[in-house]
Amino acid sequence: MVRWHLKMTDIEVTIDEMLTPYPETVKKNRKKHLIIKDEAATCCPQIEANTRTIPGIISQRGCAYAGCKGVVVGPIKDMVTITHGPVGCGYYSWGTRRNKARADDTTPKDKIYSQLCFTTDMQEPDIVFGGEKKLARMIDEIVETFHPRAINICATCPVGLIGDDIGAVAKAAEERYGIQVLAYNCEGYKGVSQSAGHHIANNNVMEKIVGTGNERKPGKHVINILGEYNIGGDGWELERIIKEIGYTVNCVLTGDSSYLDIKNLHLADLNLVQCHRSINYIAEMMETKYGTPWLKVNFIGIESTNNSLRQIARCFDDEELARKTEEVIARETARIGPVLDQYRKILQGRTAFAIVGGSRSHHYQYLLHDLGMEMIIAGYEFAHRDDYEGRQVIPTIKTDADSKNIPELHLVADQKMFQEAHVHLNMSKEKFEELKTKVPFNYYEGIYPNMKSGQVIIDDANHHEVEVLIQTVKPDLFLSGVRDKYIVHKMGVASKQLHAYDYSGPYAGYNGAINFARDVVNALTTPAWKLITPPWEKEPEIRSEFNA
Amino acid sequence: MLECVPEGASGHTTGKINPAKTCQPIGAMYAALGIHGCLPHSHGSQGCCAYHRMHLTRHFRDPVLASSSSFTEGTSVFGGAANLKTSIKNVFQIYNPEIMAVHTTCLSETIGDDIPNILKQAEIPEGKIVIHVNTPSYQGSHITGFSGMVKAMVSYLAQSDGGEKKDQLNVIPGFVNPGDMREIHRIVSELGVKLIMFPDTSDVLDSPLTSKYEMYPEGGATIAEIRDSANSSATIALGAFASNDAADLLQEKFGVTGIPLKLPIGLKATDDFLMAIKDWFGVTVPKSLAVERGQVIDTLIDTHFHYQGKTVAIFGDPDHVIALTEFALTMGMVPKYILTGTPGKQFDVEIQKLLKDARIEGSKVKAEGDLFELHQWIKEEKVDLIIGTTYGKYIARAEDIPLVRVGFPVIDRAVHPLMPVVGYRGCLRLIEQISNALLERRDRDCLDEDYELIL
Fold it and tell me: Is 2.70.70.10 the CATH classification of the domain at B166-285?
């Protein structure tokens, strides 16, 4: 099998050249965000992450509002989410993340609001005299018009600056209407990226919604899937597989989720964590407050889906579950195997970069591997050190001026509802202790262990770096967001959007693997790649060969 | 689809539900991309820049580069001067543009950053230029931001050489696609008049794929051209909302006669555009353009029964909507609902005049409206067709009405940024799109026995 490895020296030279045009301070800063994997090293070298982007650098990063409204709370289908601010923020986060939602047993079609955009559209007088009254008035009109079950208010930059007390507006509205109104102080300048917004959203959802319901869904093994946003229908593919095995899916947070389901989030036996970066706070806080154990899973890729399913089954002492798990794995793997084999013939030995998000680059390494491909450069837009190095580094991460402004909730065990992990999983303490040696509960190892010597990890990569790396290392495929996609195409390299999947999907689970493989094959083999050079510019000998 | 939207009038008047506009900075960013060798710069937190780049990229499916001052909470408290100065230093050293075009955001506006003062203190490399515009997101819309940046091009760059006015024309094309700008170039060059057009995103946002990536593509109005706009004999401002301010400034500051026109979308507006150039420069309209016009007339006569008398809702940016309404009337259609998200009384005045001249009564017209309201109007009384941006697709599906996509943004269909809707060729494209949408609907809905080979 052909495996593509960068020579240590080559890549070092490339990176050195890449850093050369930088001013000294920028160079010093950016060096710390880069690691070349060395398998001989005993542990992961420290990478700088979740620190400020240098002004003027063309970064991929967004803001706290994007992380809070755009990622975490926007997809909750039966809540009206009001963006309090000038029109842009609400507008750009309207329908652009492809979080699919549909009616279900408890949420009829007329209670779904996630395809609408609500913004207070603040005007200059609101900035000068305050926007609280306008916000309150809009809530009144929304309640009167839509009768939603609950409302979110997401703040944008000017709201914090002018001192609008959205918490007070929310509280007053709760008293007026008897429904929950949540205020998120996710102003865009908070933190250093979307990541701050994830945390702010997690805090509020955990503190205000989780635990307020008391309806446990029927079923022997009830689980939550946290950090799955149902982009392109990923969550639905996971539900298909997981339900068939015999689990009850209590809630997918927040893809196709409902406020009603989130209220009951604590009534599950186990939390699965798909996107660690955006939702690990809730997983951790639920462990503290309710004792619910969590398990990092990855449903991107066949082997990783199979491994995740086996890990989940191990958490419950249930032979039938284990049997059914193997049955589904065997059937699904056999079903898609021949299709993937065809795609693998085309993709074998090809290389990719993935510079995206805060978890996806790691997840897609497994799917690429299934397809015979190798991710030689991997990076995140807004990850923290633990996403690279593993959660064991969390206690050593220093709080800086930007992160200390994001409140940390210090929860304690709930006197009534806390149960120890083994009780959640319905097994003896001894059995659970033994299980813990096999199943890494409440842990994430980060991307580093899965990478190979000479491969590169890059944090908060910017336009200059992407340009140099693509032109020097020349991967076959670039996985990133829409802002990079067409830049990369202009360089003659195929590119797929890993946030929006180029409007395809699902990419998770078994069916997702096929979709992804098909889309990547199409991206690499679309006939136009071979037609870039016009015939009149071709060398005469090549031309004659062509004619022959 | 949209089952939550109630039947009948609602009490919604506050804020926007499903806005039909967005904020100023994205318009400023788009305009700046129409200067050759320019890197737009967003002075605010990086989320704004990320969103604007994302949205423009989705519409054009081409690279959109821009930098940000990357504000943090500390910057918001202490002011953005240091971040802007650092940005300027880094941008010129790393990305090396000819010119940086700074626009503000609601963040830097609210804290009151004094951009001209900061620029005075910044280290701008010899021979490089930084211009700026204030684009508070809480005023106007993306069209206001576009207009502001074009005006800033004039105020920073235009320079009279003191001599007589040159026999050349400035065109400010408005917030239109690169394909439209390319078409305006072609029309003016057919008329044999020397043209300075700014901004000009042709060959920037419709650039070819050659495997050789250029951060600053070939296109864009050059700084020298924009400088020389002060010496032109006239400026045609296409679309009052997007283009008049810059033309007014050229007139006021340099005595360049401003000629305000509609966007040349539709037959009459294109006629007006040609006539203005003909009259001003005394040129003859060449046969090639006369043939194109004749083809439009021929098509209108030949196909009128596909669309005449049909009711239509038109929404989008004001300059587009005004011109599209005029063309819908030329086509014999009945514009029933006409809405823009951008504020401005002039919108109502212009549309009412068009409707009155066409003797159409009972239409609803609104500036600074939203699509929730448009949806409610449509629920009250349906129309046969919607013309607007991609955001109309939810209403189109909910109410089962065909949608013709025109304007910004169109983010669910490709190729449109390269295909002009301006000029006579643009008329043909619009007639084709509108006819096809209605005919597809007829084919879809009719009984088998009514399904016909020829239409």
Answer: no
